[in-house]
What does this fold into?
Amino acid sequence: MAGGPSLLDSLFQRSLEDLIKGLRLYVGDESTFISKAVDEIRREIKSTDQQTKATALQKLTYLHSIHGVDMSWAAFHAIELSSSQSFNFKRIAYLAASLSFDPSTTDVILLLTHQLRKDLSSPNPHEVSLALHTLYFISTPDLARDLTPEVFTLLNSNKGSTRKKAIAIILRLFELYPDAVRVCFKRLVENLENSDPAIVSAVVGVFCELASREPKSYLPLAPEFYKILVDSRNNWLLIKVLKIFVKLAPLEPRLGKKLVEPICDHLRRTGAKSLSFECVRTILSSFSEYDSAVKLSVEKIREFLNDDDPNLKYLGLQALTIVAPKHLWAVMENKDFVIKSLSDADANIKLEALQLVMAMVSEDNMAEICRVLINYALKSDPEFCNEILECILLTCSRNVYEIIVDFDWYVSLLGEMSRILHCQKGEEIENQLVDIGMRVKDARPELVRVGRDLLIDPALLGNPFIHPILSAAAWVSGEYVRFSKNPLEIMEALLQPRTSLLPPSIKAVYIQSAFKVLTFYLHYAISTEEVISSASQGVADIMHGAVQENSQFVRAGLVAENDSDDGGLNHRMLHRPVRDVSVESFEDMAVAHDWLSSTSFKGEPITEESIVNILNLVETTLGPLAGSHEVEILERSRNVLGLVELVREELPGYLVKREEDNDKGQRKTHEMIKLIAEAFSEELGPVSASSQERVPIPEGMVLNQSLNDLDAICGDFELHIPTSFSLGRSISSEKDDVTMSDRQGKEEFEPTESTSLLAEHRKRHGLYYLQSQKKESINDEYPPANDLKTGENADDKADDLIKLTEQSLFPKKKTNQAKPRPVVVKLDDGDGPFIPIKKVDSKDDLISGAVRDVLFGDEATASSSRTKKSDKSSSKRRQKDKLDIDKSSGPKEDSKFMENSELENANLRRSKRHSRGKEKKHRSNAKDRDEHEEGDKQKVSHHHGKHKSRQRAEGALTLAAQSPVIPDFLL
It folds into this structure.
């Protein structure tokens, strides 16, 4: 009492009600009042008076729950109060323990073991309920091990409420102490035969949780669950049983034939929407091969869809989502409702309808559905708009674009999606643009066209969500610049002044692409002049007689080239080095002469003046970036400026061959440009995202080892430094390469919105653009960013979207494609990410192993050589188990049974750790115990008549032990 509060303090102690009123008065500064209240509680809780201690603990619990006050320091006081004889004080103590005790940090939690054991054995059901509730929240492996006997006894309690709570807590004990399965599992199964539906519902709930983790172990209990499915009329109980059968159905094919009819009976008879939906989901997910059941389920789904309750509409759409993969006709029958749901006010309904629309996509109707969805995206809120875009991107890219036939259309769609006002899928569109460029060669010309339209629109540079797309457009335009109609236009777009709005990482991509375009432009100029010179000299000196002899062959080659859609151009001539085309063959000379006469830039031919202009543009734009603090920008800009300096050294006369040139007819700058062009011309292919993870680490390699001594290790090896950038093939050795004049056709002089935007910027920032002789109009205002024009009658057509959608969803007869589907490069080891196999939780594995041991017995693991011996001992073991269960009718018998069970469990654990020889010794000890138990058989024989339900459950377990599969009554 020396350190505790005085009697006067106890008399004037504030109650919980006073504390709450005081908190409400301190509106401005509650922390001061709370700190003072905690100081008072620290003094009061030390009192020996239980009333004072209980009030203090009650106030502290309130502050902990509402205001998060730490009460870990009061754990011992809660344990002290739990031993009170007053139920109210015990309730306060257990409430404080369940709210504040942490099994991992509360050190004094084991001091509560004795009190919990005492209260679990109390005749007062309220005290038992408090102890069970507290045990669930504060249970540790040690508590679960020590209190399993008491919970085992409560599984057979005469009080229904107590038995239900004991059943509910048994799952927690299994998780913390898997050996409890060997003790309590049989009695848990016995409760499936109980006449109280609430108790059966609690048991089925436990099995529903267990089966969701490892369903195979509970397959022998299917007859018990089937009986409940047929006989029970409790809707919630039936729902849990159906959830169990959903897990068991894939493991046993015979279940479908036996279960479909009872489930259909419940579906026809019940008026409960919850049970009806669960029956529908069970049939569609596990028994979809039964057509009659599926048709009945689809009828019920239609009732859900026509209901006024939005929750039921959502469930109906969700059920259609389940049935769509195997029975698409069910979705087509309800397509009208699905289409209307895209405009529903409920966001969840719209999302489910969107999933169903994408489930109906095929090669025939893909373009129409995507067009309709794009129009819906234009009218929708930003969130649903991006959901539509994400669904389109995921569906079209599924299985490496297997559903895409026309990649030109899809690339154009990606460009159109980029201009939608609320588009926030920049990274996804970026990845697909780059991925298509590396996988599909035939789509590269269209990729360059779409990339060019995106790059020359300065309004897009101000939208941060579009920056990743612009990065992809810049990379595509630089990597595949040979497919461009006008590289100078792309160069101007890459170097326009508003690129300063881009992040440094994307701006670095712009600079690198400008490097590629400049290299291509200079290499094209060199190849043009030198090929013309070589071809002219070859024709004058050599081909006068030889071409006549081979004129038929040459004409055939020219006709073949001119008949193509590429304007009569030889695909192999664009990037080909001069040494390869000058004297390689007479035919190539003739073709080269014809090619060069038709591939010059129309309107602005390549001259030394045009080269000077483009070099000035590069220096003006990238000169200030040579001192940037960003490493990538600094390095790449200096690379481009270095190339510009090399070219300027040989101006003028850059395009004219001089006598002082070297023997190869190439000057230093020409050779350097050709080497760089060869390096850039090497084709990039797709790489698996998980390729690095698949590379095994060599044995003995230490990844964190310092490499400072690498020079000493590799001192004996001389690294070969190649003098050429050639990577194994000529720059344009492939047949399907297209020159930049290949696409000069009807699109060559078509005025577009993007060209007008470029013309506008050309006038605003003339310093940053190349000289042009064309007259351009001046516009004073920038167009709005992402201004997507859908046509003059876009508003009028918006009302016809549903009608258009209905037409697009009808399956059409597949028409013959004008051109075959392009080849899509796929990886041998798969294109998806590497997903490691998920390991089963060790606790779940232990629980499942214990369940199999209980259900199957020793026969499940015994070898064939000991079959007869195990059959003889199984009868004795079953008799012993029955006797043990009968002995457990009272508390004293339960304690004795638990002691024997603990010994048996200890032997079982030791048997797993030792060798087979020690297992034999263990079985001999078990046999001795069996004989000892048989000696006491007559003492408890009078209990057999009172436990018929227990014997039936034991018979089910015995049947399961004899065979690990379901009995034939399910056939």
